[in-house]
């Protein structure tokens, strides 16, 4: 069996857009702490979890609300990454299409709104509108836009197959893969400390197929029910509801490389990271997905999501 690791990691760095991403855990994230011989935690320096005693005390002495993702043992969950912006007059059309698709495909469809590009650039402070910056820190959205061939807004890519497309094509792309047997089960549990605004996201991967592909694990933080300005057609709407906004890329632009996929074996990770104090935990979700890190295809093979609280 593979080594079971619990990893806590935070990374804001920008990974360059290139044909293949080699992305080891950066050395400056903090001290690596092993527990019980095969358990590894890598925590952000801000948390100060530099030895086993501090780490155990942190977990034991705080109160954790627990939430769990859905069972995808017999279903392939899908990620729809939408490229959008608050000053994009056509983008609400994309959001409305995603809302329609979710009524059809339910929890099996996990949308992520990536604000990037010209239409996502906020106005200067003091302006009467559009001053909120919805772009995730680190420039990740700009890398994704180049990598997935975003040519306008709104555009979206289902399971990172091909290039980003207009909203009229999303349903067909979902239908093309929704009934595929999953190559892995991805279980997700969140433990949230509301005092310190810290999340421990535990991801367990159970492989159902042996493959020589190089798979990576990606974690996002998204937030919904954000009321702010949005251009819709020719109308500036001050109280528009922004949904599934990408707030943070947890484990680098193109995630963490996994061990080889072997049918019947498993991997387990725990990522520990802080949330911004202004994000509403009840509207915040963690999205986790596995994708093929190949120079010609980045297909997502399994995904899950769970609210923080």
Characterise this structure.
This protein has 309 residues and is mostly beta strands. It has one domain (27-307): Immunoglobulin-like (Sandwich). Helices cover 13% and strands 35% of the residues. It is built from four helices and 16 strands. The chain has helices at 52-61, 91-105, 140-147, 170-177; strands spanning 32-35, 39-42, 65-68, 78-84, 109-115, 155-158, 184-193, 198-207, 215-223, 226-232, 235-242, 245-249, 256-257, 266-274, 284-292, 300-307. The protein is globular and about 60 Å long. 43% of the residues are buried.
Topology:
Layout: E1 32-35, E2 39-42, H1 52-61, E3 65-68, E4 78-84, H2 91-105, E5 109-115, H3 140-147, E6 155-158, H4 170-177, E7 184-193, E8 198-207, E9 215-223, E10 226-232, E11 235-242, E12 245-249, E13 256-257, E14 266-274, E15 284-292, E16 300-307
Parallel strand pairs: 4-5
Antiparallel strand pairs: 1-2, 3-7, 4-6, 7-8, 8-14, 9-12, 9-13, 9-15, 10-11, 15-16
Explain briefly what this protein structure is:
With 309 residues, the chain is mainly beta.
Number of strands: 16
Examine the secondary-structure arrangement and name the CATH architecture: Sandwich
Question: Structural class per helix/strand content?
Answer: mainly beta
Task: Report the CATH topology name.
Answer: Immunoglobulin-like
What is the C-level CATH assignment?
Mainly Beta
Determine the N-to-C terminus distance. 33 Å
DSSP summary: helix tally: 4
């Amino acid at each position: 069996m593979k080594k079971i690791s619990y990893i806590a990691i935070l990374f804001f760095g920008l990974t360059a857009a290139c044909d293949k991403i080699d992305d080891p855990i950066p050395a400056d994230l903090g001290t690596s702490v092993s527990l019980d011989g095969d358990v590894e935690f890598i925590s952000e320096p801000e948390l100060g979890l530099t030895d086993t005693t501090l780490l155990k005390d942190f977990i034991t002495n705080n109160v954790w609300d627990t939430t769990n993702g859905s069972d995808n043992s017999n279903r392939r969950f899908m990620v729809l990454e939408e490229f959008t912006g608050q000053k994009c007059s056509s983008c609400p059309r994309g959001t409305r299409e995603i809302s329609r698709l979710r009524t059809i495909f339910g929890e099996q469809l996990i949308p992520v709104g990536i604000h990037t590009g010209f239409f996502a650039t906020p106005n200067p402070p003091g302006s009467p509108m559009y001053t909120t910056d919805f772009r995730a820190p680190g420039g990740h959205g700009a890398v994704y836009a180049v990598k997935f061939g975003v040519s306008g807004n709104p555009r979206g890519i289902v399971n990172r197959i091909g290039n980003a497309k207009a909203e009229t094509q999303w349903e067909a792309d979902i239908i093309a893969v929704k009934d595929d047997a999953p190559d892995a089960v991805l279980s997700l549990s969140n433990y949230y400390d509301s005092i310190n605004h810290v999340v421990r996201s535990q991801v367990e991967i159970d492989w159902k197929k042996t493959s020589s592909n190089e798979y990576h694990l990606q974690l996002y933080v998204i937030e919904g029910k954000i009321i702010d300005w949005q251009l819709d057609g020719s109308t500036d709407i001050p109280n528009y509801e922004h949904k599934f906004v990408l707030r943070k890329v947890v484990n680098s632009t193109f995630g963490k490389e996994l061990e080889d996929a072997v049918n019947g074996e498993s991997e387990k990770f725990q990522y520990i990271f802080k949330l911004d104090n202004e994000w509403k935990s009840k509207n915040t979700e963690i999205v986790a997905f596995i994708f093929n890190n190949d120079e010609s295809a980045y297909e997502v093979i399994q995904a899950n999501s769970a609210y923080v609280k």
